[in-house]
Amino acid sequence: MLRIVLCGLLGTLVCDTASADWRQFRGNDNSGLNPAALQKDWDGQQTLAWTADLPGRGLSSPIIIGEQVILTACSGPREDRLHVLSFDAATGQQQWERQFWATGRTVCHPKTSVAAPTPASDGQRIFAFYSSNDLICLDLAGNLLWYRGLTFDYPNASNSLGMSSSLVVSGDTVVAMVECDDESFATGIETTTGATRWKIDRPRRANWTSPSLMQLGEQSLVLLQSSDGVSAVDVATGEVSWNYADGASTIPTLVVAGNTAFVPSHGVTALRPGTSNPAVPEILWQEGSLQPGTSSPLVFGDAVYVINKAGVLTKAALNDGSRLWQARMKGPFSASPVVAGGKMYCVSEEGSAQVIDLADEGKTISTHEFGETVLSTPSVTADGIYVRSDGHLWKVQLP
Amino acid sequence: MLAVRPRACCWMLGCLGLMTTSVIAAETGSLIATITQVGARGEGHAAATAAVRELETSAQAADLVPLLKAMNSAAPLPANWLRGAFEAAADRALSANSLPTADLDAFVRDRSNTPRVRRLAYEWLLKGDPEAETRFLPTLLDDPSAEMRRDAVARLIGQAREQTGDEALKLWRQALSGAVDEDQVDAIAKALKELDVPFNRVQHFGLLVDWHVIGPFDNVDQKGFPVAYPPEEQVDLNAEYTGKLGPVTWQQLHSDEADGAFDIAKLTEPHKGAIDYLYTEFKAGEELPVEFRLATANAWKLWVNGELVFAREEYHRGMRFDQYIVPGKLQAGKNTILLKVCQNEQDQDWAQRWAVQFRVCDVTGKAVHQMP
Questions:
Q1: How far apart are the first and last CA of chain B?
Q2: How far is A6 from B110, CA to CA, in rounded Å?
Q3: Which residues in chain A are contacts of B37 at CB distance < 8 A?
Q4: For A33, which DSSP code?
Q5: Contact yes or no for B42 and A193 at CB 8 A
Q6: Cα distance from B43 to chain A (closest Cα, Å)?
Q7: Is B318 in CB contact (< 8 Å) with chain A?
Q8: Does A148 contact B at CB distance below 8 Å?
C-alpha cells in the first residue's frame, strides 16, 4: 500500500514538473499558455531576475525543463557553428555548452539566423534544430545521444532566406517540417535512436510555420500548415488523417484549442475534424478582418487574439470570430504573444516588452525596453518569462 | 604464506597499469571506429548511440587527442558525433584541471590536421591556457583554417585603425592578404578606398567574369528546368540553336561590375519564363579539390567537365555572396564549366532579378586563380 502511495506521489510530482515546463515552441501544447502561470497574481510590472550573455545569434525560444533553461544559438561569419546551451533557471548561470558543425546550408536573410527553430524536449532529451536542418539529440547533461543532418541526407532541402520551423515532440516521435521550394518534406524521428519513423512529401513552397499538436482522445495528431492549407498527420505513423486544402499563411502558425484549430487562412479560419467524413474538416467560421502579421494567433479563455502587421491587437469571439475590441501596441512584432498571470506579454522587434491587460480592452500595464532587437517568442514558467535576443537571455520574474 | 617483495609488487602494479591503459586505448579506438560508420539517413545509429554514450562517460584526458585525430578524417555526420564525445570529456578534464594543454598545443601547431578540428583544439587549449592566444595570433595570417586566419586579420584590422599613413597602409595590406570573409574584406576595402588605394574585389575573391552565354530557351510555366536543351548535350560555341524566340548563338560576355555579377535580365530579352546557359573554361595547374561558390536568385544547374554537380530549383529567395557552396574538383589543365540559369514568370517587383555571380576557391574561401 505504501509503495502505491509513493508511486502515486511520484507520479503527481512528475506530472506537476512536466506541466510547469515549457518544452517546445509556444509551450508544451504550442498554445502560448502555461497552466502553471495562468492564474498567477501578477500586477504586470516587469522585474528582471537575471541576464545571461549569449555566444551567438538566434531567434529560437528558450525551453525550460525543470530547473534548466535550454537555448540554441549560432556563430561564425557563416553561422555554421551550432550551439546548445543550458542555464540554471534560478540564477542564469551557464551550466554547459555544446557546439557542433552545421552539415547543411547556413545562408540566411540577415534578419533571421541559423538558430531560428525552437528546440523541443520530452523531459529526458533535448532535440535541437537549425535552419541548416541539423537535428541534434542530447541528454539533459549535454551528452550527445544522436545526430542527424537532414540537409546532408537530402541536399536540396534548404531555403536561401533561411528556415525556421520548430520541432514538436509527442510520445517517442519528434516531428520536423523541412519545407522549401525544392526538396520538401516532413518527418517523424524516433526519439531514442534518431531513426526515421516516417517521411512524407510536402508542398514545394517555402514555409516558415511550425508544426502544432492536436490531441484527439488517444490519437496524437500534428497539424502541418503550408501555402496549400493544413494537413493533420498521425504523429506515430505519418498517415494523413485529414486535409484542409483552401490555402494558409506560410509565416504565422495556427493555434489549437481543444479540437479546433484557428488557422491563418482567409483571415482566420476555425476548423475541426469532420464528424460525417473524418477526412474533410468542418469549417466553423472564417473571419477575413482578422489578419495575423508575423505573430501567430493565441486563444485564451473565450477569445482568439490576433496581432496584425501594424501592431494592432484584436480580440475576437471564439465562437464566431466577431471583433470584441482592438488595441494599438508599439510594434512591429515578430514574436508571438504569450499569457502569464492572466495578462498578455508581447515583445516588439525593437525589444519593447508590453504587458497587456486583457480584462481592460488591451490597456498597456507596463513596458520594458530590452534595448536590443527581439524576434523570438517568449517562454513562460510558473516563476518567470524568458526572452532572448542575439546577445542576451533574460528572465522576467513572476511572483 | 606467500611473501611479495616491494620491487616485484611495483612491477606487477605497473604492468597492470599499462594493461589498463592499453585496454582503455583499444576500447576508445573501437568506439571511435564504430562512430565513424555513421552514415546518412540514420545509418549506423544503433551501434553508434551505444558507442558515443560509452565514450562520453569513459573518455579521459588522454583520449582527447585521439578523438581529435579521428575527427580529422571523419565524414561530416560522424565528426559531429565525435565532437559531442570530445566536448563531454574535455569539459570533465577542464573541471579537473587536467586538460592536456601541451598535446592540444602540438595538435594545433600541426597544420596537416584538418582546419576546423585544429580550431576546435585551439579553443579548448585557450580554456586551459589563455596565454596560448598571444603565442599563436601572430602566426595565423596564412593559416589553412579560415577561422584562425580571421582572428589574425581582426588583430591587424584593429592595429591598422590605430595607425595612419604608410604604417596603416602596410597593416591594411597585411590584413587583406589573409582575409577570406566578406565582412572583413569589405572593411579593409573601405579603408583602402579612404587611402586612395585601388582594390580589386573580382581578383581577390576569384570571381569568374568572362563567359559565353546563349539563350533564351523556353521556361514558361517553369517547365524548362528538367529539359535538356542542346548546350547540355554538347557545348559547341559555333553552333546555332532554336531558342524561345528564334535562332540563338553563343555570345561573349564580360562583367565590368565591381562584384563580378552578370545581370542576365539586361542581356536577354524577354527576361521572363526563360533560360540562359553560361559557359567558361578554367585552367588549373594541377588536380585539386575546390569549391564552386555562386549566388543567384534563380533556379540553376552546374556541370563541371561535363558532369552535373548540383541542381537547384528555387526562385527569388534572395541573392547573396557565396549563397551556394558546391564542393568539387578541378583536373589539371582545361576544365569546362557550364551553368544553366532559369528565370520564372513571377511579376512581383522583388522577383525580377535574373543574375549570377560565380567563383572558384579552396575550402577556406580563398580564391583559386587559373593558370595564364
A1: 87
A2: 59
A3: none
A4: B
A5: yes
A6: 8
A7: yes
A8: yes
Query: Residue B318: which of A77, A161, A180 has the nearest Cβ?
Result: A161
Please check whether residue A34 is in contact with residue A22, taking contact to mean a CB–CB distance below 8 angstroms: yes
What's the CA dihedral at B290, B296, B301, B303 to 10 degrees? -30
Contact B155, B123 (CB under 8 A): no
- Over residues B168-172, the mean pLDDT reads 97
Sign of CA dihedral B343, B346, B351, B353: positive
Contact (CB<8Å) A196/B320: no
Distance separating alpha carbons of residues A328 and A114, to the nearest angstrom: 32
Which three cell numbers mark A116?
531560428
Angle at A347 between CA A343 and CA A350, to 5 degrees: 155
Cα(A33)–Cα(A31) distance, rounded to whole angstroms?
Answer: 5
| Alpha-carbon distance B50 to nearest alpha carbon in chain A (angstroms) | 8
Tell whether the model's pLDDT for residue B7 goes beyond 60: no
Contacts of B355 (CB under 8 A, 6+ apart): B261, B262, B263, B264, B265, B296, B297, B298, B319
Contact assessment for residue B362 and residue B291, using Cβ atoms and an 8 Å cutoff: yes
| CA-based nearest distance A203→chain B, Å | 13
Closest-CA residue in chain A for B35?
A146
B255 pLDDT more than 60: yes
- Helix, strand or coil, per DSSP, at residue B222: helix
* CATH of region B205-361: 2.60.120.380
ipTM field = 0.94
At B372 the pLDDT is 85
Q: What is the pLDDT of residues A322-348, one digit of tens each?
A: 999 999 999 999 999 999 999 999 999
Compute the average pLDDT of residues B229-237.
Answer: 97
User: If you average pLDDT over residues A381-390, what whole number do you get?
Assistant: 97
A85 inside 8 A of chain B by CB: no
Q: Of A107, A145, A196, which is closest to B320 when you measure between CB atoms? A: A107
Q: Which of residues 60-79 of A touch B (CB under 8 A)?
A: 76-78
The answer to whether the Cβ–Cβ distance between A193 and B56 falls below 8 Å is no
Residue B268 has a pLDDT of 75
Q: What is the pLDDT of residues A291-306, one digit of tens each?
A: 999 999 999 999 999 9
Question: What are the chain A neighbours of B126 within 8 Å (beta carbons)?
Answer: none
Cβ pairs bridging A and B (under 8 Å): 107
pLDDT tens sequence across B301-360: 999 999 999 999 999 999 999 999 999 999 999 999 999 999 999 999 899 999 999 999
pLDDT recorded at residue B16: 41
